[in-house]
Design goal:
single chain, alpha+beta, 11 strands, 18% helix, 57% strand
């Protein structure tokens, strides 16, 4: 009887090492975006809170599988200019109606060597933004090291695909494509 209890304990410990549930906390990450204006000399840099949400990383064979979602609070975005921020949130992103953006990962396979060494890998996700859901290619670095999981996700949002009007002010128009980077770090 004693041997079977030890076997069950070993199986439970092994299973725990294969599945990592991670709760993302906005204060432990950040979001950054860059929008280029025309004329192209204008670059609008903005920051916001890191993502919230839950991710599950499971080791299956020689790879990991990622599932879950990362939620970005759009009201936290800040470009450093109050009037521009107000226009961005009220007129273009309509933050009162669409409070967050959601990046969903479903059965995303990540090679073990990329996870252990922090290598970059292209994955497919779904972005829910401004009431629209679209497939989104994401360049992701996910590194598991010393009990921490660090993630960096980079993707490009084409505003017109999400029914977001292209911002324009005093003869300057923002390009349709905006570069987004989110970073976070969680303990296993």
């Amino acid at each position: 009887m004693k041997a079977s209890k030890i076997t069950v304990l070993i199986i439970l410990v092994f299973a725990f090492q294969l599945v990592a549930a991670m709760t993302l906390e906005p204060v432990k990450g950040k979001t950054h975006f860059i929008a280029v204006g025309r004329p192209s000399a204008l670059k609008i840099n903005g920051t916001g809170h890191g993502p919230a949400g839950d991710l599950k990383l499971e080791k299956i064979g020689d790879s990991y599988v990622l599932n879950g979602e990362a939620l970005m609070d759009l009201s936290s975005l800040d470009t450093g200019i109050e009037m521009r921020d107000r226009h961005m949130k009220e007129k273009y992103l309509e933050v009162e109606k669409f409070k967050q953006a959601k990046l969903v990962f479903k059965d995303v396979k990540l090679p073990s060597d990329k996870v252990s060494k922090g290598g970059e890998v292209e994955v497919n996700a779904t972005l829910d933004l401004h009431g629209q859901q679209k497939p989104m290619p994401v360049s992701m670095v996910l590194e598991v090291k010393n009990g921490l999981v660090k993630t960096i996700a980079k993707f490009k949002v084409k505003l017109s695909e999400f029914n977001i009007s292209i911002p324009t002010f005093s003869g300057i128009t923002v390009a349709d494509e905006v570069n987004i980077t989110t970073e976070t770090e969680v303990k296993l």
